[in-house]
Amino acid sequence: QVQLVESGGGLVQAGGSLRLSCAASGRIFSIDTMGWYRRAPGKQRELVAAITRGGRTNYADSVKDRFTISRDNAKNAVYLQMNSLKPEDIAVYYCNAEVLGSSGFGNYWGQGTQVTVSS
Questions:
Q1: What are phi and psi of 93, to 5 degrees?
Q2: Tens-binned pLDDT, residue by residue, of the chain (119 aa)
Q3: Rounded to an integer, what distance in angstroms lies between the CA atom of residue 62 and that of residue 90?
Q4: Distance of CA 21 to CAs 6, 13, 16, Å?
Q5: CB-count burial class (<10 Å; 0-12, 13-18, 19+) for 78
Q6: Cα–Cα distance, 57 to 34 (Å, whole number)
């Protein structure tokens, strides 16, 4: 069984920074795309940023130039550096990974971590 565990959420003032981390564990052969999604109150879940195993990235327009996604393939980990945070970034952030494991290929989610930005 593959598990994704997130950390790094919390409360920060507008303009501040947070760094989210997510580590995958279990019987993992390889991980393709990893990403971060978020669900704001009253809204649907949306893609924030994604990164392929080779390092190609994709960002939502609302976070370009403020957020940076990175990964460490040796650690099966993905990170999201969030700078210049705004109240509209308030959401539960979820880690996602496309994993080839002992039971085959699957799409996995973390439990979510709350990010709150005070104005």
A1: -100, 130
A2: 899 999 999 999 999 999 999 999 999 999 999 999 999 999 999 999 999 999 999 999 999 999 999 999 999 999 999 999 999 999 999 999 999 998 899 999 999 999 999 99
A3: 13
A4: 6, 20, 17
A5: buried
A6: 10
